[in-house]
Automatic annotation (TrEMBL):
InterPro entries in the cross-refs: RlmM_FDX, RlmM_THUMP-like, RNA_MeTrfase_FtsJ_dom, rRNA_MeTrfase_M, SAM-dependent_MTases_sf
Domain Ribosomal RNA methyltransferase FtsJ: 186-278
Residues the record lists as binding S-adenosyl-L-methionine: 188, 221-224, 240, 260, 276
Catalysed reaction equations from the record: cytidine(2498) in 23S rRNA + S-adenosyl-L-methionine = 2'-O-methylcytidine(2498) in 23S rRNA + S-adenosyl-L-homocysteine + H(+)
Protein name in the entry: Ribosomal RNA large subunit methyltransferase M
Keyword Cytoplasm annotated: yes
């Protein structure tokens, strides 16, 4: 039997960001010294090795948490063209040729209008495929947590991929779907909620998002992000010349200051800084650097609005600048960045200061 190898490192992404996700993978492949070519389709992107190697080392060598534009990270086999009369045999055959075993199967589609229309087909094939792969010994009870992903590209084309525990998203399609709270002042509230899920382990919420903490929301109006802080029981300095939501102000937890978020300084050290100001990335970054270098907050979540082209290059430039500034100032910090599901033309950055010697309130 011929051996089929997973030569493609494949990621899911938001439609319209395929080039950016691919540019990110090409960068990491170059760092690894691998010869690759880029591949992409609506809602996904990848790099395929042209040097005869597998994609396993590439995928394993870059932690999923380090990827910005990826929603999921897989090693993938060549796309299969299926007969409408017998789709299952070709899928099972490729699994056997790859020698793959796994303990779960996920049927997924690109996050596009065309992709969503394939959900019914994937559902209809789920049980028959499970039965066939169990019979062939590929689907097992204990297979190290490996998961088979079937990315349905059309009714007659599917791409098989494998993900590994600890280096993947545990969400279907890599998408965290949140319900918009009816009382929130704006839909932007979901950006901050998703950021917390992404960057703060759920078991740490009671410690790091605790009642009684102090926070600043720069560019707060009408209060979508402030609302999330208030729901966690924090006191919030809402900095914006625009009006805040009246119901939110009635909570008694918000101090609205009609000042410029780029120049305002807190009266004391705060626990959180959040910012969703629409401005050039360099300007927002300079403002946040000031906060972090001065240690005016313990953690920060902020968005960087991206240009229409070369978005990966812009993100890389911004993150490098931020990390360099913190290193030069002797600030030990963990920096992470992600293009979240509820983001549009921006990425969300999280920074947590790890330095133990934080300044006293009077030194701010």
């Amino acid at each position: 039997m011929k051996q089929t190898v997973p030569a493609t490192w494949l990621v899911y992404c938001r439609e319209g960001f395929e080039r950016d996700a691919q540019a990110e993978l090409l960068y990491h492949a170059a760092q690894h010294g691998a010869d690759v070519k880029g591949v992409a389709g609506a809602g996904w992107a990848g790099v395929t090795r042209t040097d005869g190697g597998t994609a396993n080392a590439l995928q394993r060598g870059v932690a999923f948490s380090r990827l910005v534009f990826a929603r999921q990270s897989l090693v993938a086999l060549p796309a299969l063209t299926l007969s409408r009369d017998d789709r299952l045999s070709a899928i099972a055959g490729q699994v056997s040729e790859a020698g793959w075993s796994f303990d779960s199967i996920w049927h997924e589609t690109p996050d596009t209008n065309d992709g969503k229309s394939l959900a019914r087909l994937a559902k209809a094939l789920t049980r028959p495929l499970q039965g066939l792969l169990k019979k062939r010994g590929a689907l097992r009870r204990k297979a190290g947590g490996r998961r088979l992903h079937l990315l349905w590209l059309s009714g007659s084309q599917v791409q098989l991929g494998m993900s590994f525990p600890g280096n993947r998203s545990e969400l279907a399609g890599g998408i965290r779907r949140l319900r918009l709270p009816s009382r929130a002042p704006s839909r932007s509230t979901l950006k901050l909620e998703e950021a917390w899920h992404e960057f703060v382990p759920r078991e740490a919420w009671d410690e790091r998002l605790a009642q009684g903490m102090q926070a600043a929301d720069l560019g707060a109006a009408p209060g979508g992000w402030t609302w999330q802080l208030v729901q966690r029981g924090m006191h919030v300095y809402a900095i914006d010349n625009g009006p805040m939501d009246k119901a939110l102000m009635a909570s008694g937890q918000v101090e609205h200051l009609g000042e410029d978020g780029f120049t305002w300084a807190p009266p004391e050290r705060l626990d959180w800084l959040v910012c969703d100001i629409v401005d050039k990335p360099a300007r927002v970054l300079a403002m946040v650097e000031r906060w972090l270098v001065q240690r005016w907050c313990r953690e920060a979540v902020f968005n960087l609005k991206l240009p229409m082209k070369k978005r990966w290059e812009e993100v890389q430039r911004c993150l490098s600048r931020l990390e360099y500034a913190l290193e030069q100032a002797g600030v030990d910090a963990a920096v992470a960045c992600r293009h979240l599901y509820h983001d549009r033309e921006e990425v969300t950055v999280h920074v947590r200061l790890l330095t133990a010697d934080m300044p006293d309130a009077e030194s701010v």
